[in-house]
Amino acid sequence: MNEEERAEDRPTEASPPVEDGSPVGRRIVLGMLGLGVVGIAVGGTLQQKVNRALAPVGQIGNVLPAAGGFRYYSVVGSVRKRKAAEHRVTVAGLVERPRAFSMADLAALPQTRINRDFQCVTGWRVPDVGWAGVALPDLLNAVGVSPSAQAVRFRSFDGEYTESLTLAQAQRRDVLVATEMQGGPVAHDHGGPVRLYVAPMYGYKSLKWLGGIEVTDKVVSGYWERRGYDVDAWVGRSNGRDDAPT
């Protein structure tokens, strides 16, 4: 996955662990983290096992929750930076007016600001993070969604990471094409210049380094879903309903 950074910890999105080629499900990881202070309980053995499981996906911080900090890892290791002035987010697929949005284009659309926690599937959480940008339904309205559309797919410009939402999920007001975070532009390590933020779901749905959006006729499993993670990732929910409260 890919995720964040704060203070001494280098942040990141939730990344589903894979060990010896076998996917480790989200509930297993959360169960392991729920054991308590791993270093005391099992002398660090479990922590080492989780670190080895995550190693194939790139850079890793400590897997256990940090005191108020983000952690991150990228599925491709180092990701080349893009200058905000040069960056474009393309929107295509089942839309009436395909378009490439510059940062100025995004800024010209209605802006939405929200403060929400960022919850990683591996257990750590950063409370009350400020986000700003274009609510995804406003961006979709700008291009016109086809009546046959059922889902939205997102691509990172890292060349590997993808995610999807149902159209109903994508039309929530707390799903942002985020251009600001914590009072300033989204930094590269946090997925800038533009990233996705899906407030009610675990961090692996909030794709970093957003480069492309495609409206589709079905949900296409993303990078981590193809490795065993839930397609619906509501925080604190297991039913994955599209009518989860805002």
Automatic annotation (TrEMBL):
Gene3D superfamilies: Oxidoreductase, molybdopterin-binding domain. It comes from the Bacteria. This is Molybdopterin-dependent oxidoreductase. It comes from Actinomadura yumaensis. InterPro entries: OxRdtase_Mopterin-bd_dom (IPR000572), OxRdtase_Mopterin-bd_sf (IPR036374). Coiled coil: none annotated. Residues 1-23 are annotated as: Disordered. Residues 78-224 form the Oxidoreductase molybdopterin-binding domain.
